[in-house]
Amino acid sequence: VTTGEINIGVLTGLGFAVVLTLYALLFEPVNKAVKSFNQKKAGKIATSVICTVLALGIGVGGFAFANVAKHSTANEKQTDYVIVLGCMVRGDRPGIFLSKRINKAYEYLNKYPEAYAVLSGGQGNGEDISEARCMYNALTQMGIEPSRLLLEEKSTSTKENFENSVAMFNDMGVGM
After folding, report:
1. Which of 92, 102, 152, 167 would bridge with 120, disulfide CB 3.0–4.6 Å?
2. What's the rounded Cα separation, in Å, for the pair 173 and 167?
3. Is 20 left (phi over 0), alpha (psi -120 to 50) or beta?
4. What is the Cα–Cα distance from 159 to 30, expressed in whole angstroms?
5. Are 89 and 128 in contact (CB under 8 A)?
């Protein structure tokens, strides 16, 4: 919220925080109601089902997180082309997450001076320029040669970022 990024993850976290805050404020009445509810057979069954679903959700979430963490290591393999995905632009300046992506792209392009980057991202609400153009401006100001930067400015989602970037590679004759 403090960065201006509003998405389902942020909203879920805020919702969870509100529920926990309400529970803390209404601890006694909530516990009394749950105890009363659980004295009936239907209440015990409902509570068991809810607890089972929550436990399964926590287990699946933990498995998914562990899987992502396990496979999120830096890849040291050099490639001639990288795709840099767009993210929120504030006016004509990169948001906090896009700034981090720009910095990583800069590091890679500096390390591999023969590499090219496809900067992928269209122009969304509240953005004066496309996400791709914002990345281009930042990277060229950092000293990256403009000819090494390819702009894909039509996409409006991550799926389109990849589809349009792959189409650019195909048009250039770069095998994927």
Report:
1. 152
2. 10
3. alpha
4. 44
5. yes
- CB atoms under 10 Å from CB of 163, counted, come to 15
- Rounded to the nearest 10°, the torsion over CA 142, 143, 144, 149 is 70
Global pTM exceeds 0.70: no
Report residue 140 as tokens: 């060229």
Torsions phi, psi of 126, nearest 5? 80, 5
Which ranges of 39-157 would DSSP assign to H, the alpha helix?
Answer: 41-70, 96-111, 131-141
C-alpha–C-alpha distance, residues 42 and 31, integer Å: 17
Task: Please report which confidence band the pLDDT of residue 8 belongs to, taking 50, 70 and 90 as the band edges.
Answer: confident
Q: How many residues does the chain have?
A: 176
pLDDT of residue 3: 56
- Residue 148 in contact with residue 105, Cβ under 8 Å? no
Strand partners, 94: 89
Mean pLDDT across 9-30: 91
Task: Find the helix or strand (DSSP H, E) in which 130 lies.
Answer: none
Sheet hosting strand 116-120, strand order edge to edge: 81-85, 116-120, 149-152
pLDDT of 51: 92
